[in-house]
Amino acid sequence: WATRLYRADREWDDDPGPPQGSRLYYACFAGLIAPVRDLIGKGADVNAQGGEYGNALQAASWGGHQEIVKLPLDKGADVNAHG
């Protein structure tokens, strides 16, 4: 599942509307630190809205992934964003 999610050649709508989240959202939710670092490093929008929990930061938080929560925060994720 994670390999299919992360494949760089896979088409994906990185400007989703609810309820679909971005690749970053799902990587954060699943606790996949290497893909999260890579996606953020390649310019993924840390404030993109979508997914059941609203955004990548909230998905990482909900999943209990403390190390991953720090990554979007370091890139300016809005802690007050609605989710």
TrEMBL record:
Keywords: ANK repeat. ANK repeats lie at residues 52-83. This is Ankyrin. It comes from Podospora fimiseda. SUPFAM superfamilies: Ankyrin repeat (SSF48403).
